[in-house]
Amino acid sequence: MTLLALDPPDLLGEFYISFWIPTAVLTAALLIKLPTIVRLWRDPLLRAVGGLLLLACGVFVFCTPSTIATVNRLTGVPNISAPWCYSLLTAFCGSCLLLIITWRNGRSDRSAATRRAMRWVISVYAAVVVALWVLFLLADAPVERLRDLDTYYATTPFMREEILLYLVAHAVACLITSRLIWNWVRTEGLDAWLRWGLKLLGAGYALNLIFDASKLVAVVTRWTGRDLDWLSTDLAPPVAALSAILIAVGFILPHAGQYLHDRWRVRLAHRELRPLYLLMRTAGGEGVPFVLRATPELRLTRRETFIRDVLLPLARHIDTGLGGRAYEAALGLGHPPERARALAAAVSVLDAVEARSRGPEPSGAAAGPDTTNLLQEIGAVSRALRSPDEIEAVRALAAAPAESVAVHE
């Protein structure tokens, strides 16, 4: 994550453009999560997420050279953006550690060790923020520097200590966070989305360590009288931009990925039920009315309900003997048992629809077959209806005399 040198040179302009991607993503994530954070403020995980997103947005906004110049001009104090940006970054580092501790240990963890670790993080990084401002007040930094402040004032008393302090605090936080993340990645039973999110976070914090190393080498080199400023002004910014993108995506991916996966699963289930739904419309009249503002979950529920409501009375026309022969026929044709059951059920349902269209309803006293399994497997039956050739093959073999049907051993 960049500090006072977010504008890379022309040669690295692509990274500067990419830097705004995490800004937009984190701002959108903050706006989306803000109502939940306010409503469930007592949840420590949500508080940690909210604090991190807010601080990350603040770092990205205030550490650009244009914003640095504006803050300096409005306050009338040259380089006052330095302790402000350093403080935001330090607070962000502490927030990262708090989030990882809360996230890793779970919402319900109230152990003394967890509380002690969180108090330690808050105390140490709050003390660092106070020290940054004290050092700036003691320092003499009259020349405004928008992009190379770290190396320009690397040998200035008190500014030297301030620059070293924020870089060490940032490096320590990134090192500890990276270690915790990679240890967590290796644990068993993680959700796939969470595992990928953690990997991206680990990669992002590893790049942050490269950023810190570049800055520290450039600063220490200044102490020896040599000049490797390009490490701070040319290399560190693009590395930080890429790191910010990975960290932003890593924090959002477990939540957004699971949300999109659930939505896709619902839409896929709704689509898979279409063949059986259309068949039930031929047997049960009008289907489910279309509601423009209905959620995908509601549409799926209404389609499932409609199919089951039509299947219940249709069960009186189901020929259980045909269903058994169709199952044996499907097995004889080489289908696995699960697929054979779905094909047999599809054959039975098609036969029941045709029987209902040919003749009157059976007597009300007549009890139909048990349809529990059929009602639970409507998805598999609907998928089977997408293979009319297989259904016709099973149906033809099941309609043959019983002794001609190969018995499945």
Automatic annotation (TrEMBL):
Annotated DUF6545 domain residues: 263-386
Matching InterPro entries: DUF6545 (IPR046675), MAB_1171c-like (IPR050039)
Transmembrane segments: 15-32, 44-68, 80-101, 122-143, 163-182, 203-223, 235-257
Keywords annotated in UniProt: Membrane, Transmembrane, Transmembrane helix
Source organism, top-level taxon: Bacteria
UniProt-recorded name of the protein: Integral membrane protein
Organism for this UniProt entry: Streptomyces collinus (strain DSM 40733 / Tue 365)
